[in-house]
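Deviations from the work plan: none for this task. Representative record:
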Amino acid sequence: MDVMPVSDLSHAAQDYLKLIWSATEWSPAPITVSVMAERLGVRPSTVSDGIKKLAGQGLVTHAPYGSIELTDAGRAHAVAMVRRHRLLETFLVDVLGYSWDEVHDEAEVLEHAVSDTLIDRMDRKLGHPTRDPHGDPIPGADGRPSMPKGTQLSAAAAGNTVAITRISDADPQMLRYFTELGLAPDTRLTVTEHRPYADVTTVRVHEPERDIDLGASASDAIWVVAV
Amino acid sequence: MDVMPVSDLSHAAQDYLKLIWSATEWSPAPITVSVMAERLGVRPSTVSDGIKKLAGQGLVTHAPYGSIELTDAGRAHAVAMVRRHRLLETFLVDVLGYSWDEVHDEAEVLEHAVSDTLIDRMDRKLGHPTRDPHGDPIPGADGRPSMPKGTQLSAAAAGNTVAITRISDADPQMLRYFTELGLAPDTRLTVTEHRPYADVTTVRVHEPERDIDLGASASDAIWVVAV
DNA sequence: CAAATTTGTTCGTCAAGCCTAACATTTGAG
DNA sequence: CTCAAATGTTAGGCTTGACGAACAAATTTG
């Protein structure tokens, strides 16, 4: 049995696979039907039907009420979609002057429309970038996802000095706020303290030296590595 | 009643409108259901249904067995789609190094996926081009189509010296052939003779000076203006 | 650990696009 | 100017992806 090209999958199937893969990129907990439904903006019954169809195509394994896992074929398609998405985001920023909070929705649509040829040309024009504007790793053309590292800022120990590796692109408004604060991939900072019941994390950033208080949603969206 | 944005039209509706508009761009004969079906690769019944739906949305006028005409609203959407298509083609060639025979199919898909914002950014990056790689005029952002001029080479009088204004992008293979021959928009040539029953047109081109014989399909695909 | 709540599945329905087959209208050739 | 061929339309079905309602399983909690 041949591996289908990505373009033979329905738009919906592409979305499902990418979402399943993305859910496990930064945290190991398997994704659930209801979470998928919420992220995709559809009803759980729709996702349940969709997963069943993907299982029939051999792209995921799923027994009723069981966990949802990608097969090797499903993972290959998912990674291809993620590559498309992240290359598109990078292209929009680097070549067309988009800001990092504008690119997500545009890439979300385009990733279903661009050909493999176009992806290759963008990749070449960009010099084979390895990270997108939010710091997420761009899988290679060979389908090998580059393994991300790091932990959420909310989970980093106080006192550590760290560098931002990625910032979730899910919320454009939050990205604009981070821009104002001067927080971006590769920014270095020191975790000053976590205040438990206020759910506030305080960090110190240099140039200019300043302290920033971040709420739970913000410190969950920022991923860091020790430096 | 507000004018819908292009993006609210179905993929199919966008194709229909663009095709109806395009059919009358270079020749005044109104388009028929069967021609549309053939160009879109669907059955006439499908087109007939589709036209009826467009008529219901006020985008075309059409009585059963009658002619198909765009309304002002329909024309606006159609021109917007043509602008998208031609800007995309220009972008693919100028920015991503595509050759002119590769861009049509890619643009055909992308034109349904790009946002108005992306179109504007491409337009700006390209310096507001007025013609696409095949010589076709790119309508302005205000929706004003720039009026094309010219006649098919097959209809140009022998003895005239003319410049190519456009070459139909319908057939990639023919475009590659024209590339080999050194024929492109703005190439100047002299019509030597039409040989009626052979359906061959002979033209003389300079640098290097040479005579080229073109069959009917080729001399129909090339549009020229007196120079 | 049993009941209540949450989560997941199945089933019937709908709209969009497409198809084929049957039918209607127009056209154009003799 | 008639009738056959070409063209267009309608009707009925199929598939996909969505929905809600009803039901099933699993998990949480008292």
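Residues 10-12, 42-43, 45-46, 49-50, 53, 64-65 of chain B lie near DNA strand C (CB under 10 Å from a C1').
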